[in-house]
Design goal:
This protein has 2 domains: 257 residues, Type I PLP-dependent aspartate aminotransferase-like (Major domain) (Aspartate Aminotransferase, domain 2); 93 residues, Aspartate Aminotransferase, domain 1. It is built from 12 helices and 13 strands. α4 links the parallel β2 and β3. α5 packs parallel to α6. The radius of gyration is 22 Å and the shape is globular. It starts with a helix and ends in a 5-residue tail after the last helix. The structure holds pyridoxal-5'-phosphate.
């Protein structure tokens, strides 16, 4: 029995999900089976919005699968990776029972989705040493096995840590968890990393689930298009827990345009520029007097500790620049997270922080 079959909620084993009108494999010319309007809205020039969208448009599924180098049956298109996280909780953790493992400081939605599901969050704090903030994968494995966690979330590259976890370490963790837990690798920022090879993990064991998104490098955050990549049986389990029509048609069209060859070439160039700017900003921030530490980052952001984070935040805000205040996060009471902007924006950030030196 595969890891996913063992872990699927008992009460969902016979659950087929909602049989939406669009999921039925029937052909016809006049569609009177979904209580849609017979006329297009006045503002809907091409009439494409009158009907419910395809729950999993094959064209988009195939384009995303080709982008990530997997077969289409290994991929579920979701309403952003946020929905992927939620579906994993729904399918594998019975409400009020079970646990997940996370390595804070980390993206907050794993804990939020768990909380909404009354699932326990077992936190294994990342270790802070001279080379950066690092998830403690050994301790995460031990916690997962001890607490019988069903899902272990690894954010790679890490948000906000910026860490990159070597594929071999993730593979070892997956092998330790095999048969006991699914290992979810959130690769939202993989396009900005030195290596983007997490998909190879799928061949290693049956318990790896990868999350990808068009929100970051592909500049489509408002379209809400994410992907869950996993064994086909995991994809089928998650799809049964998904809303009937998760993907709005205009978002599907925006995603397809963003996946055309010329758009992809532009995305790669833009990600390259972000990487260059990340290094330039990191070096320049290290020279600013009020800056205590700039963590290495494989994402499109830098985590920065300040002597006076409030003064730094206020100085940037006074100039109209909003950065992420991390000070409520345990262990990051002096930190801000700064997304990499355009070269001009990054230069402004440095000169404002350098000017705020006296206060900071
Ligand atoms: C690590 C990580 N995963 C997932 C997401 C959410 O991505 P999406 O926009 O696809 O829901 C974010 C957003 O900031 C993130 O930082």
């Amino acid at each position: 029995m595969s890891t996913a079959q063992k872990l699927l909620r008992d009460d969902l084993r016979e659950f087929a999900g909602y049989p939406s009108a669009r999921s039925q494999a029937v052909q016809g010319e006049v569609w009177l089976n979904a209580n849609e309007s017979p006329e297009a809205a006045l503002t809907d020039a091409c009439g494409a919005l009158r009907r419910y969208p395809d729950p999993q448009p094959q064209s988009l599924r195939r384009a995303l699968a080709s982008l990530y180098g997997v077969d289409a049956n290994h991929l579920l298109v979701t309403r952003g990776s946020d929905e992927g996280i939620d579906l994993l909780l729904r399918a594998f953790c019975a409400p009020g029972r079970g646990a997940i493992v996370t390595a804070p400081p980390v993206f907050g939605m794993y804990a939020v989705c768990a909380r909404l599901h009354a699932t326990r969050v077992v936190e294994v704090p990342a270790r802070d040493n001279e080379s950066g903030l690092h998830s403690d994968l050994d301790a995460m494995a031990e916690a997962a096995l001890r607490e019988r966690a069903r899902l272990v979330f690894v954010c790679n590259p890490g948000n906000p840590t910026g860490e990159a976890i070597p594929a071999v370490a993730i593979k070892t963790l997956a092998e330790r968890l095999r048969g006991k837990a699914l290992l979810v690798v959130d690769a939202a920022y993989a396009e900005f990393a030195d290596t983007d090879d997490c998909v190879a993990l799928l061949d290693a064991t049956d318990n790896v689930v990868i999350l990808r998104t068009l929100s970051k490098a592909h500049a489509l955050a408002a379209a809400r298009i994410g992907s869950v990549i996993a064994a086909p049986e995991v994809i089928a389990m998650l799809q049964r827990c998904q809303a009937p029509y998760p993907l709005a048609q205009p978002a599907v069209e925006a995603a397809l345009s963003a996946l055309a060859p010329d758009a992809l070439a532009r995305t790669r160039r833009a990600a390259g520029q972000v990487r260059d700017e990340r290094e330039r900003l990191r070096q320049r921030l290290q020279g600013v007097a009020g800056v205590r530490r700039v963590y290495p980052s494989q994402g499109n952001f830098l985590l920065v500790r300040f002597r006076d984070a409030q003064a730094a935040f206020d100085a940037l805000l006074a100039a109209g620049i909003v950065v992420r205040d991390m000070r409520a996060t345990p262990g990051l009471q002096d930190a801000l997270r700064i997304s990499i902007g355009t070269p001009e924006q990054n230069t402004r950030v440095v000169s404002i922080l350098a000017g705020a030196r006296q206060a900071a």
